[in-house]
Amino acid sequence: MTAVTVAPSSVVGLDEAVEHIAGTAFRAGPIGRVGLELESHLVDLDRPGSRVPWERVTGLVAELEPLPEGSRVTLEPGGQVELSSPPAADAAAAVAGLRSDRVALAGVLSRAGLGMSVLGTDPLRPPLRLSPAGRYAAMEQHFAAVGCQEAGIRMMTSTAALQVNLEAGPAPHWAPRMAQAHRLGPVLVAVSACSPLLGGHPAAWRSGRQHIWAELDRSRCAPALTGNDPAADWATYALAAPVMLVRDPATGAAEAVRTRTPMAEWLTGTTLLAGRSPTVADLDYHLTTLFPPVRPRGYLELRYLDAAPEPWWPALAAVTATLLDDPAAADRAADACAPVEGRWVDAARIGLADRALRTAAVACLAAAVDTVHADLRPEVCLLADLVSRGHSPGDAVLARAGGSDPLAVLAAATDLPGGDR
């Protein structure tokens, strides 16, 4: 399907919107390239119990020299630091590049008395939005209006993820690749679980981060794949999801939508938002406020992995890419995951304590070990051994911390120059 070619300021109707969303969901190209995004909780090494002031963080980022491998540094609303790598030839190159840039960034931050703690949830500090950006203030207002205020602020300010971005592949591969990304999801949620504490208390689920996502508006956070036409599924999902905020075309200021108004209702004129009809720019912006576990953006965004410290995030990146991009490994993983397909909540709540999920995870890790790039096999073998014992990276962090003291857990996952903690 081809995208509608219209100016961003052009007003669109329902049929044009369907074509535009479906036509931009996937971009044809060869399979293989990998991009990574890794978020970390920023820590003041002298006062780890307090969040680093926003002005201090933004000042440091503004003065950063370009990182050696070209990763981009951005900030999340709670002050989390995100490193986004450029697309690389494969998972090994992507990991090597991101590792290099993390070391460089850790050195800069250390000289300023700061470190990066790589965990799915902040184990010590209560949720607090630091960013004054209008988008995040509007998001917070929308979440409050639709009944998930606490989960919304926790998601924005107290979570961190590892995101793996993969090519959509040639058009005939789009449906099977989306299906495989969803099939792997519950198993990789259980394998990656690394958020044992949240705001000073034990998390209720194995993945505290996924627990937070489960409490958000399901119309924008639930899986988006329902059939064999993922582009059409994505259009249907996007048009049914409520509009979160509307930007002023002149100023760019964001205004929260305090009702549950599906995008389709704004497009058809059933409901008028901000006193006007929607444009292509409004439609594209709406897509950035949808957070399913797999999001098509021309490529595939796999958003369901917890952030985890070394050596776990490189292993998770390698396993995820291998089980989607290597045909032999993908086939073995598909067979292994079939009995637990769709068990997203159980994976986050129970994790590898569930026998069926653990069996699937062990088989998936075995498939990855056999086919992963040699440069990343040591890390993947370590993860395979961890999983074989029914543990996930969160258990390894607790063991390193010597227990569940929040301050010790934060320190155990904090990167310092040279890879020390």
UniProtKB/TrEMBL annotation:
GO terms for biological process: ergothioneine biosynthetic process; glutathione biosynthetic process. The keyword Cytoplasm does not apply. GO terms for molecular function: ATP binding; glutamate-cysteine ligase activity. InterPro entries: EgtA_Actinobacteria, GCL_bact_plant, GCS2, Gln_synth/guanido_kin_cat_dom. It comes from the Bacteria. Pathway: Amino-acid biosynthesis; ergothioneine biosynthesis. The keyword Transmembrane does not apply. Its EC number is 6.3.2.2. Keywords: ATP-binding, Ligase, Nucleotide-binding. It catalyses: L-cysteine + L-glutamate + ATP = gamma-L-glutamyl-L-cysteine + ADP + phosphate + H(+). Gene3D superfamilies: 3.30.590.20. Belongs to the glutamate--cysteine ligase type 2 family. EgtA subfamily. HAMAP family: EgtA. NCBIfam families: EgtA_Cys_ligase (TIGR03444). Catalyzes the synthesis of gamma-glutamylcysteine (gamma-GC). This compound is used as substrate for the biosynthesis of the low-molecular thiol compound ergothioneine. This is Glutamate--cysteine ligase EgtA. It comes from Blastococcus saxobsidens. The lineage of its organism: Bacteria, Bacillati, Actinomycetota, Actinomycetes, Geodermatophilales.
